[in-house]
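In the laboratory, one determines a bound structure by crystallizing the protein with its ligand and collecting diffraction data. In a computational setting the workflow is compressed into a single prediction: the sequence and the ligand go in, and a structural description comes out. We illustrate the idea with zinc ion.
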Amino acid sequence: MKIPRILVIAAAATLSMLSPAAAQKPEPLPVMASFSILADFVRAVGGERVAVDMLVGPDADAHVFTPAPADARRVAAAKLIVVNGLGFEGWLDRLLKSAGSNAPVVVASRGVTARSNEAAHDHDDDDHDHDHDDDHDDDHDHDDHAGHDHGDTDPHAWQSVANARIYVGNIRDALIAADPAGRAAYEANTRNYLGQLDALDRDLKETLARIPAERRHVISTHQAFGYFTEAYGIAFKAPVGVSTEQEASARDVAQLIAQIRREKAPAVFLENISDPRLARRIAEETGAKIGGTLYSDALTKADGPAPTYLDMMRHNMRTIAEALAN
Ligand code: ZN
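The predicted complex, in structure-token form:
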């Protein structure tokens, strides 16, 4: 498991020469988040004291992001950089170097229990009481090919609300370190937001618990919902692994289609960051219905169905519950 380099946050010396009037309304702290979900957490905790920018915007795929020179300039302007870690931002180290940034980098996932894609397969197998014996043969076949995603760290930890709470606590601590004068505001915003996360977590558990056990398995485009499965008991399979960098092989897709036919998965979901063609083909060949679009790795713009993390998780919850209702 690759553990991202964690930089200890040194409280940057803040301007202490401000006049009393200016001190009341400080310049917002410029914070760069690596992708849209983290930017939303920073906004929730930072409120008016921060000016949040992001590298990978709404509906965009952070797995395959290629920073441009303009991104390095934006990073150089930030006083705090917030990243996911768990191998999500493979492009980060090079970008920080080219930006020449000395800003502290907070790894928002620090403290979550990381899972690997291999664990996802084991978990799925345990979940199905009607699994066939030949599933084990499938697993052996998978292990044979080089470059397959088995064993990769799954970076999508934000898909469990319990983990989102950890992210938010790390962001709060980093903002306090970077802007000590804002401590009271950051702590109050965090308390308020954690309350909203608790309500969300309860809704997710109650709503998804009503889905009958035999319908609790679905297909998505890439393996982004492993933490969601652990938290909420809906099993996901996907033709693409925990990163969208690797394409599904014809053999993987054929095996998945055979498995879906045997297990009669009720629904296939599209994702906002992924090409829908493969999921559509799987739905056609298996008779599973398209259950709608899930938001896994990116929020939508303000006028879409998932402009915030809270909206995203509720949208996914409703979409799954409607698709799996009898
Ligand atoms: Zn992903």
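Residues 63, 156, 222, 224, 244, 296-297 surround zinc ion (CB under 6 Å). Keep in mind that any predicted model is a hypothesis to be tested, not a measurement.
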